[in-house]
Amino acid sequence: MRAIEIYDTTLRDGAQSEGISFSVSDKLKICQKLDDLGIHFIEGGWPGVNPKDMGFFKKVKRLGLKNSVLVAFGSTMRKEAKASQDKILKGLLAADTKFITIFGKSWALHVREVFKVSLEENLRMIEESVKFLKSKGRMVLYDAEHFFDGYKDNEEYSIKTLKAAEEAGADRIILCDTNGGTITSRVFEIIEDLKGLVSAPLGIHAHNDADMAVANSVAAVQAGCMHVQGTMNGYGERCGNANLVSIIANLKLKLGVDCISDISLKGLTEASRFVAEVSNMKLQDNQPFVGNSAFAHKAGVHVNAILKNPRTYEHVDPNMVGNHRRLLISELSGKSTIFKKAEELEIDLGKGSGHGKKILKKLQDLENNGYHFEAAEASLELLIKHLMKRFKDFFDFESFRVTSEKKKGGRMTSLATIKLKVGRVTERATSLGDGPVNALDGALRKALKKFYPGIAGMHLTDYKVRVLDEKEGTAAKVRVLIQSQDKDGSWWTTGVSENIIDASWQALVDSVEYKLLKDSEKK
Fold it and tell me: How would you class 49 by CB atoms within 10 Å of its CB: exposed for 0-12, middle for 13-18, buried for 19 or more?
């Protein structure tokens, strides 16, 4: 099994993604997680240019990284300068890392129109920058920026830039598809062409503007590259960088390439979600290998086959990357899905009974009216237990009233009043809120807290509304999804109505009943 180096640039290239702004603390947390995952190189940032990055390089030493090597990133020296006096190179040395990555121009277009220097001067800048850093005892990785575009435009000159870095002592030469527009087959062909021309170990750094960054990275490894750069979850400028999560999984599971350990591979999903959380970015549900939907099955035919043999609709075992299989309940489900879901809920539907058919019919009717249970599994569990008469009513609702008021110069406030019964006891409660749902939530929990003290430990964390019949205008049905949370976890519930308050109330009641159900099952 051939070993491949994994180089992460989330903290630098990933930070250029729209919507991401890392603090030093954020960068330290991600760095620790990458080290735990077994990433070989972690690019920390550009010291000497960005004060935040310099602060990171000072503090990161306290982490005591066990598996990863820290790398400082910067450019070649400025034009018509001496390497020993160049501020950029001095800043890189000040970061005090054993490895340094510098990028230089491989595309004659950029040399002339961006650097505005001669082609010969650019070669000197590359060569002297690498030589200077090597003279200071550093290992140097040379990023050949825009290499593939440069090769297609002026093959001879782009190779000269690689040779300049190699002859100066570069320890790795990284071929960059900086504009992200090269087709995968062309990446493979160009790297094949370089064999025999460049003897230094080659790497790949791909961007995703043509949605081929992962494919290009994997093809580059197949063509002979031994070093792969990318970011967690594909974060990066424009359309992002090559997604290291998918690259690692494909190298390990499809090509049998040694890049991280089998044990670390099981932590891939957790690491991906951790980085998304720290980055304040929602992880895409359909992200391959680690997304919430990556191993989710909805169609009844698919579920039936999966229960017989998972290989029928899964290309890898989800456990290998730390993910898990999900069977979704919807109007597309078959009885197999219903029985499996009931089994997970420890409800015996009985073999050959009509319970599964009954539940499926009710489910299809509700989804036809706008309900969406695959996104609200707490409401689904309550539905099944109600139909199977496995649910105890914790309270009987009688009525509620909500009023909203806005005074000149003030903010909108809502007042909710609720009347319900717990056993034979009638309880009334009133609560103010920022909006009608917030007021209803407060009144409902106030009415129940003396009967069920555990309800104080839950709170609403998300609220979503979708109009189902846009053509109906203000008379359209709406679907409400509510996420609630306590110390043990979170759950989603749903409600549907032409009235947004009514739909919210349905989801809110399900949310509270689910909490009370879980608390009662602990006793």
Answer: middle
Where is average pLDDT lowest: 178-187, 209-218, 319-328, 356-365? 356-365
User: Would you tell me the crossing angle of helices 213-223 and 184-194 to the nearest 10 degrees?
Assistant: 30
- Which amino acid does the sequence have at 179? N
Q: What is the pLDDT of residue 475?
A: 60
Token pair recorded at residue 359: 């539940």
pLDDT at 490: 86
Residue 466 · residue 493 · CB < 8 Å = no
Pairing of strands 413-422, 396-405: antiparallel
How big is the CA angle at 382 (ends 379 and 383), to the nearest 5 degrees? 85
- Distances, alpha carbon 77 to alpha carbons 105, 145, 343, in Å: 11, 15, 65
Tell me the residue length of the chain: 523
As given in the structure block, the two tokens for residue 13 are 């290239």
Q: pLDDT tens-digit profile of 199-245? A: 999 999 999 999 999 999 999 999 999 999 999 999 999 999 999 99
SS3 399: strand
DSSP 412-459: -EEEEEEEEEETTEEEEEEEEESSHHHHHHHHHHHHHTTT-GGGGG-E
**234, 9 Cβ separation under 8 angstroms:** no
- Report, as an integer, the average pLDDT of 53-66: 93
Question: Is residue 157 a contact partner of residue 195, using CB atoms and an 8 Å limit?
Answer: no
Bridge partners, residue 70, by sequence? 42
Give which of 57, 199, 82, 74 is closest to 142, Cα–Cα. 74
- Beta-strand pair 41-45/69-75: parallel
Q: CA dist 30 to 69, 260, 287, 407, 439, Å?
A: 14, 17, 19, 47, 39
Do the beta carbons of residue 136 and residue 93 sit within 8 Å? yes
| Domains of the chain (ranges, CATH numbers) | 5-278 (3.20.20.70), 296-366 (no CATH), 395-451 (3.30.160)
Rounded average pLDDT over 471-497: 83
Which of these, 146, 47, 52, 145, lies nearest to 99 by C-alpha position? 47
